Amino acid sequence: MKDQLPIADEDEHNSSEAAWCWWRSAAKFEELAKFKLEMPNLSKITPRIKVLREMERLALIAPEGLDELRHKLLAYRSGDFWMPTGGIRKEEMDIPPVVTLLLVGFHNSGKSSLVNLMYSVLGRSGLIPFAQTSSEDFIFGGAQCVEVDAKWILCVRHEGFEYDRVDESLEELSEWITDGVHHNQLCLRSGDRLSSSKDELGINFLRSSSQFANRRVNYVMVVANVAEIYKALKASDSNPLEALRQLFCSPALRKRNEDPILILTHGDKLSMEDRIDGRLKICEYLGIMETTGVYDIVCITEYGLLAEEFDPISAYALTEAVYRALLMSDRSHLPKRRIWDWAVLVLSFFMCCLGAFFAFLAHFFNKLGQRDKLKL
After folding, report:
1. What is the DSSP letter of 241?
2. How many Å apart are CA 369 and CA 366, to the nearest integer?
3. CA nearest 181: which of 199, 157, 164?
4. Residue 173, class by beta-carbon neighbours within 10 Å (0-12 exposed, 13-18 middle, 19+ buried)?
5. CB-based contacts of 337, cutoff 8 Å, min separation 6
6. For residue range 249-295, what is the model confidence (pLDDT) as tens digits?
7. How confident is the model at residue 351 (pLDDT cuts 50, 70, 90)?
8. Are 313 and 65 in contact (CB under 8 A)?
9. From the CB of residue 197, how many other CB atoms can be counted at a distance below 10 Å?
10. What angle do helix axes 111-123 and 47-75 make, rounded to 10 degrees?
11. Which range in 56-70, 185-199, 221-235, 248-262 is most confidently predicted, on average pLDDT?
């Protein structure tokens, strides 16, 4: 006979499971159960059913799959997920020794809480060997680099972008993608008030630029506050959603032809139906799949709770998001520049200059000939 839990413990277990399996009381969940028993009619699978199936997948694999996925991250080395394409060998690829993941989002989107959750989930397996920090350690915001076993780094844009300053935010993001990031890098925009002296500002700038290596961003994860966006939509305010679309679809993030990972936070502040509906509206507006590369994560560590016990789905979803980000970053590496490539580049530049020179001569002598005709 199997051992049974005491009544009090069983009730506590059921209430805990009901908390992190919140979608199972949805109106369409009964339809999902029918799909499990019958041959599914693909034409009847709605976006809402897809979301429910994705949540069921996470619920099924989370209890046993978390340790396995953490082990894969622990054994990961930069370039492990690279797939040979076009006959190019791995030795010919420009694979950095450390992969850099960039975590961006608007103000109050949940980036700091997400990092704290990552410390809680990944720190227990030894992936993050030091204590967590908060955004209060940074003057004007900046890039907090969470170095994980010297194999991959998570850079967090603290203080967040502003909905009413999207253009400046996109310009700043483009600089990060193009020029790379430093640990504790200052991010001072026009209009920011100087709360520190110039000497202190100069010291912090030198600290961020000279003592830490410049890291090329390999992949980006976008964090969005689904509760804030959905409540704004209910109030006929589409500015937060439009700002998210501009960030998610910005040319700087499209250089690698891959969608960034979207992490939705603060979903627990919505009702069950609104939480699903908010996810569907955001994905539809961004033009992405409702399930692939989208994660609904509740950062319960801000309530002082242990994610693995009280919300294993969020713990697993976060770990899978990091794993997927590393997978996509390894697929975006470019071939190394060889001597022949540099020679072709220099020759192309020289030919462009020569062509421009002859075009100028043609224009000059054409004007000179027209002037001589007018004199005659």
Report:
1. H
2. 5
3. 157
4. buried
5. 94
6. 988 887 765 789 999 999 989 998 999 999 999 999 999 999 889 99
7. confident
8. no
9. 9
10. 50
11. 221-235
